[in-house]
């Protein structure tokens, strides 16, 4: 038979199910169609082939020699189709995640193997950048961003609050783990990142904001934290990024008497049309479970 003159595919599907169960009724239940539909599709296949495929008995069906000859290649063909479809679907499941380098390094990467174990069919691509992405132009599916608000055109969900905390090496603190705010920018250098939160702190404290511009400025929060760990000054950073070091006593969080308003957090954001897709939903739910646990 020529390749472009295949038997009716619905008939082959009905034949396969009926041959497995040797019953039109059971085949119909498996295919979620009526028994008469299965019988009609099998008859159409038999007419196309010019040979009976089943012997009809009161107690069920039996394969004819033609049916026995047809069943193995039909089973193989359906397995090949299913395997090819599965490979294509797995190849298509690439998830591109955008987040700041500090979040990626200090929060996401240490946990990421939990997602890949749970969803082995999704290949994750991490894009670490402080820049706000254009989801369509940059091919990004989902992002995690820090701040007080998100773009109104995006779907968003709070991952967790992340109020800033001032951290430094315990060696820079005075007795009892305290730090005199007057030491800021003098005995204890200020360490800045791209958010420039020390400027907000100085305004809240009623101090000259120009003083807040002194110190070392880093493009990434990650580097400001590393400098604080090395005793090079005091950094004002999102608390979730330094929780591990605070618990271990590697960093101290001295009370400076002034706290910034608790309005910041890490947010999950994505275009509305991607929000409920399988791969984005899988990442969203996993992120939330990690944040809660």
From TrEMBL:
Keywords annotated in UniProt: DNA-binding, Transcription, Transcription regulation
A single GO molecular function term of this UniProt record: DNA-binding transcription factor activity
- Lineage in the entry? Bacteria, Pseudomonadati, Pseudomonadota, Alphaproteobacteria, Rhodospirillales
Q: Which family would the database say this protein is a member of?
A: Belongs to the LysR transcriptional regulatory family.
Gene Ontology terms describing biological process: DNA-templated transcription
HTH lysR-type domain: which residues?
7-64
Q: By its UniProt entry, which PROSITE patterns does this protein fall under? A: HTH_LYSR
Q: Which domain of life is it from?
A: Bacteria
Give the organism the record lists.
Inquilinus limosus MP06
Name assigned to this protein = HTH lysR-type domain-containing protein
PANTHER family recorded: GLYCINE CLEAVAGE SYSTEM TRANSCRIPTIONAL ACTIVATOR, HTH-TYPE TRANSCRIPTIONAL REGULATOR
